[in-house]
Design brief:
It contains 5 helices and 8 strands; from the N terminus they run H-E-E-H-E-E-H-E-H-E-H-E-E. By secondary structure, it is α/β, with parallel strands linked by helices. The chain has 2 domains: about 60 residues, Roll (Ubiquitin-like (UB roll)); about 80 residues, Translation Initiation Factor IF3.
Length: about 190
Protein backbone atom coordinates (compact mmCIF):
# COMPACT_ATOMS: atom_id res chain seq x y z
CA UNK A 1 0.00 0.00 0.00
CA UNK A 2 1.08 3.61 -0.59
CA UNK A 3 0.19 4.52 3.00
CA UNK A 4 2.97 2.23 4.27
CA UNK A 5 5.60 4.26 2.42
CA UNK A 6 4.54 7.37 4.38
CA UNK A 7 4.46 5.57 7.72
CA UNK A 8 8.20 4.80 7.76
CA UNK A 9 9.21 8.41 7.20
CA UNK A 10 8.56 9.74 10.71
CA UNK A 11 9.47 8.51 14.15
CA UNK A 12 6.65 8.63 16.68
CA UNK A 13 6.46 8.41 20.47
CA UNK A 14 9.00 5.87 21.81
CA UNK A 15 10.80 5.62 18.46
CA UNK A 16 12.28 9.10 18.97
CA UNK A 17 15.90 8.75 20.13
CA UNK A 18 16.86 12.32 21.10
CA UNK A 19 17.07 13.36 24.77
CA UNK A 20 15.50 16.76 24.08
CA UNK A 21 13.00 17.83 21.45
CA UNK A 22 11.64 21.15 20.25
CA UNK A 23 7.86 21.07 20.22
CA UNK A 24 5.88 23.23 17.82
CA UNK A 25 2.16 23.18 17.19
CA UNK A 26 -1.15 24.96 17.29
CA UNK A 27 -2.01 24.93 21.03
CA UNK A 28 1.53 24.54 22.38
CA UNK A 29 4.14 27.15 23.21
CA UNK A 30 7.20 26.41 21.01
CA UNK A 31 9.99 25.37 23.35
CA UNK A 32 12.62 22.69 24.02
CA UNK A 33 11.51 19.89 26.38
CA UNK A 34 13.12 16.70 27.65
CA UNK A 35 11.74 13.69 25.74
CA UNK A 36 9.94 12.25 28.78
CA UNK A 37 8.06 15.54 29.37
CA UNK A 38 7.16 15.78 25.68
CA UNK A 39 5.79 12.22 25.70
CA UNK A 40 3.68 13.02 28.78
CA UNK A 41 2.30 16.14 27.07
CA UNK A 42 1.33 14.06 24.03
CA UNK A 43 -0.35 11.47 26.25
CA UNK A 44 -2.32 14.16 28.10
CA UNK A 45 -3.58 15.50 24.76
CA UNK A 46 -4.45 11.95 23.65
CA UNK A 47 -2.21 12.37 20.59
CA UNK A 48 1.16 11.24 19.28
CA UNK A 49 4.56 12.90 19.45
CA UNK A 50 5.69 12.99 15.80
CA UNK A 51 9.23 13.88 14.74
CA UNK A 52 8.82 16.37 11.89
CA UNK A 53 12.42 17.49 11.35
CA UNK A 54 14.87 14.85 12.63
CA UNK A 55 18.01 16.63 11.39
CA UNK A 56 17.44 19.80 13.42
CA UNK A 57 19.24 20.23 16.75
CA UNK A 58 17.25 19.43 18.83
CA UNK A 59 14.78 17.51 16.58
CA UNK A 60 11.47 19.29 15.91
CA UNK A 61 8.32 17.41 16.96
CA UNK A 62 4.57 18.04 16.92
CA UNK A 63 1.85 16.72 19.15
CA UNK A 64 -0.82 15.55 16.71
CA UNK A 65 -2.90 12.52 15.78
CA UNK A 66 -0.48 10.54 13.60
CA UNK A 67 -3.12 8.97 11.34
CA UNK A 68 -4.63 12.41 10.68
CA UNK A 69 -1.14 13.75 9.95
CA UNK A 70 -0.53 10.95 7.41
CA UNK A 71 -3.90 11.60 5.80
CA UNK A 72 -3.06 15.31 5.36
CA UNK A 73 0.37 14.46 3.92
CA UNK A 74 -1.16 12.00 1.46
CA UNK A 75 -3.82 14.54 0.47
CA UNK A 76 -1.16 17.21 -0.11
CA UNK A 77 0.91 14.85 -2.27
CA UNK A 78 -2.17 13.94 -4.30
CA UNK A 79 -2.93 17.63 -4.93
CA UNK A 80 0.66 18.27 -6.05
CA UNK A 81 0.52 15.28 -8.39
CA UNK A 82 -2.75 16.52 -9.88
CA UNK A 83 -1.17 19.91 -10.62
CA UNK A 84 1.69 18.34 -12.58
CA UNK A 85 1.28 18.23 -16.32
CA UNK A 86 2.66 15.24 -18.15
CA UNK A 87 4.04 15.98 -21.57
CA UNK A 88 4.33 13.08 -23.98
CA UNK A 89 6.66 13.24 -26.96
CA UNK A 90 5.40 11.38 -30.01
CA UNK A 91 7.88 10.48 -32.72
CA UNK A 92 7.15 10.42 -36.43
CA UNK A 93 9.68 8.86 -38.78
CA UNK A 94 10.23 9.77 -42.41
CA UNK A 95 12.57 8.48 -45.08
CA UNK A 96 14.42 11.04 -47.20
CA UNK A 97 12.12 10.28 -50.16
CA UNK A 98 8.75 9.81 -48.44
CA UNK A 99 5.91 9.98 -50.96
CA UNK A 100 2.85 12.25 -50.62
CA UNK A 101 0.41 9.59 -49.38
CA UNK A 102 2.69 8.55 -46.49
CA UNK A 103 3.47 12.19 -45.76
CA UNK A 104 -0.22 13.13 -45.53
CA UNK A 105 -0.97 10.08 -43.36
CA UNK A 106 1.79 11.05 -40.91
CA UNK A 107 0.73 14.70 -41.03
CA UNK A 108 -2.81 13.71 -39.99
CA UNK A 109 -1.43 11.71 -37.04
CA UNK A 110 0.80 14.63 -36.01
CA UNK A 111 -2.21 16.96 -35.99
CA UNK A 112 -4.04 14.50 -33.71
CA UNK A 113 -1.05 14.29 -31.35
CA UNK A 114 -0.73 18.07 -31.17
CA UNK A 115 -4.47 18.50 -30.51
CA UNK A 116 -4.13 16.03 -27.63
CA UNK A 117 -1.42 18.29 -26.14
CA UNK A 118 1.55 16.04 -27.00
CA UNK A 119 4.82 17.27 -28.43
CA UNK A 120 5.90 15.87 -31.79
CA UNK A 121 9.46 14.98 -32.73
CA UNK A 122 9.70 14.26 -36.45
CA UNK A 123 12.83 12.81 -37.93
CA UNK A 124 14.25 11.67 -41.23
CA UNK A 125 16.39 8.55 -40.93
CA UNK A 126 19.13 8.21 -43.51
CA UNK A 127 20.21 4.64 -44.38
CA UNK A 128 23.51 3.94 -46.09
CA UNK A 129 24.21 6.36 -48.92
CA UNK A 130 20.88 8.16 -48.53
CA UNK A 131 22.80 10.63 -46.30
CA UNK A 132 23.63 12.30 -49.64
CA UNK A 133 20.01 13.50 -49.69
CA UNK A 134 20.17 15.44 -46.42
CA UNK A 135 18.91 18.59 -48.20
CA UNK A 136 15.78 16.66 -49.21
CA UNK A 137 15.33 15.58 -45.59
CA UNK A 138 15.64 19.15 -44.36
CA UNK A 139 13.14 20.37 -46.98
CA UNK A 140 10.74 17.60 -45.93
CA UNK A 141 10.96 18.55 -42.24
CA UNK A 142 10.52 22.27 -42.98
CA UNK A 143 7.48 21.47 -45.13
CA UNK A 144 6.13 19.36 -42.25
CA UNK A 145 6.61 22.26 -39.79
CA UNK A 146 5.02 24.69 -42.26
CA UNK A 147 1.97 22.44 -42.74
CA UNK A 148 1.55 22.25 -38.95
CA UNK A 149 1.95 25.98 -38.24
CA UNK A 150 -1.74 26.30 -37.25
CA UNK A 151 -1.34 23.55 -34.63
CA UNK A 152 2.27 23.82 -33.43
CA UNK A 153 5.26 26.04 -32.96
CA UNK A 154 8.78 24.90 -33.78
CA UNK A 155 10.91 24.27 -30.69
CA UNK A 156 13.99 23.13 -32.57
CA UNK A 157 14.81 23.64 -36.23
CA UNK A 158 16.04 20.64 -38.29
CA UNK A 159 19.27 19.34 -36.82
CA UNK A 160 21.43 16.51 -38.15
CA UNK A 161 22.63 14.09 -35.45
CA UNK A 162 24.47 11.13 -36.92
CA UNK A 163 22.10 9.55 -39.44
CA UNK A 164 19.00 11.33 -38.12
CA UNK A 165 17.72 14.80 -38.88
CA UNK A 166 15.18 15.88 -36.25
CA UNK A 167 12.76 18.72 -35.70
CA UNK A 168 10.76 19.31 -32.49
CA UNK A 169 7.27 20.79 -32.42
CA UNK A 170 5.20 21.84 -29.42
CA UNK A 171 1.41 22.35 -29.47
CA UNK A 172 0.14 25.91 -29.62
CA UNK A 173 -2.04 27.04 -26.76
CA UNK A 174 -5.54 27.31 -28.17
CA UNK A 175 -7.50 30.29 -26.87
CA UNK A 176 -11.14 29.64 -26.04
CA UNK A 177 -13.53 31.27 -28.49
CA UNK A 178 -14.81 34.61 -27.22
CA UNK A 179 -18.46 34.76 -26.31
CA UNK A 180 -20.36 37.91 -27.31
CA UNK A 181 -21.24 40.25 -24.48
CA UNK A 182 -24.84 39.84 -23.25
CA UNK A 183 -27.21 42.21 -25.00
CA UNK A 184 -24.73 42.97 -27.79
CA UNK A 185 -26.49 41.21 -30.65
CA UNK A 186 -24.82 41.57 -34.04
CA UNK A 187 -28.13 41.56 -35.91
CA UNK A 188 -31.29 43.32 -34.72
Amino acid sequence: MKNDSLKGQHRINEQIRAREVRIVGDDIEPAVYPLSVALKMAEENEADLVEISPNAVPPVCRIIDYSKFLYQLKKRQKEQKAKQVKVNVKEIRFGPQTDDHDYNFKLKHAIGFLQDGDKVKAYVFFKGRSILFKEQGEVLLLRFANDLEDYAKVEQMPLLEGKRMTISLAPKKVAAPKKPAPGADAEK
